[in-house]
Amino acid sequence: MLSNKTIQEERTQLFKNVFDGKVPKRVPIDIDFSWDAAIEYAELDLKTAQWDMKQWPIFYEKMAQEFQNDKLPLTRSNRTPRFYQILQAKSFVMSDSGYMQHPEISCLEVDEYDEFIKDPYNFMTEVLLPRLYPSIQNDTIFSALNFAKAYKAYHDSMQYMTEIADCMTDKYGYAVLPPGAGTEAPFDYLADLIRSFTNINKDIRRFPQKVEEACEALLPLTCKAAIGPVQNQYARCFIPLHMAPFLNKKQFERFWWPTFQKLMKYIFENNMGAWIFCEHDWSDKLDYLAELEGRVYMCFEYGDPSKIKKIVGKNHIVSGLYPISYLQTKSKQECIDEAKRLLDIMAPGGGYIFSTDKIIFSIKGQIAENLKAVLETVREYGQY
To answer: Which pTM does this prediction carry?
Structure first.
């Protein structure tokens, strides 16, 4: 029987081979669960467990024990409620049922575009953040104390999550890769966190030049966030891509693509790897993705796997597409058959990491049993 250390080294090598452009021993598996799913699966109270740090190792270990991923199947959560409650956040709030949600909110007025473009960092710090977080609205000692308390709560949470994750990774022999980073495409940042989905779609028609200038102004900030403590191709900067599928070709080429392409070039030139999640359907934009420099790890939500493999898989790593809806609605054999179908299309020649089409938000009903069968199938059927 192999030791956990040997298993860990083998799992790590699977990912390194794929990142290096080599064919691994078998297809690596990289699925991820939300905290909500993990807490409920461990039969803990969703609200209480997010607040009580003593309960965090319980659901981390539950997931690490039962779902044989090649990486720890539960990562750190950036949405713990303590941080947001201290700030009285409007942008991220906990629902009555205990789920953290991101309501549509706009914190930048149209007539403030010019001032924002002139110095986005200062304008966000001095104007936008106090609007989003009322507890730091006033220029008083209490606002400073609230900010300090929130920062400490966030830091303590992240540090403890890292300690738990490191412990579970070693205990159960999961792959070890360097710490990465996270950022957003400038247009997505503007839409998701500053102007809102509704307003940005108005702005590109009424004030197109302002939107272009705002994206360019945000680019240095998104670039800075993209570089982590380790710079090599195994350290990946995660970028969720949101707004592009909602834009037509002309809008995409004018507003979204230019600054994203610059961001990706910056990441490549600074020796970081990139890991992008292509939300929704990118079928009409695959040629753009294929142009990107480096060897990008691309996870797709929807699309034709054959087309994606042919266009993007020549130079980049492809992943995703396994529908989590199958786990809830299909029989075990149907779930297994779909995994084999994807492996037959995506695995040949390497450059493929098995993953679901999105993070798994629930493990209720038959989901857990079906998923375990799928993971076992990939480990056996995905051998090269």
So the answer is: 0.95
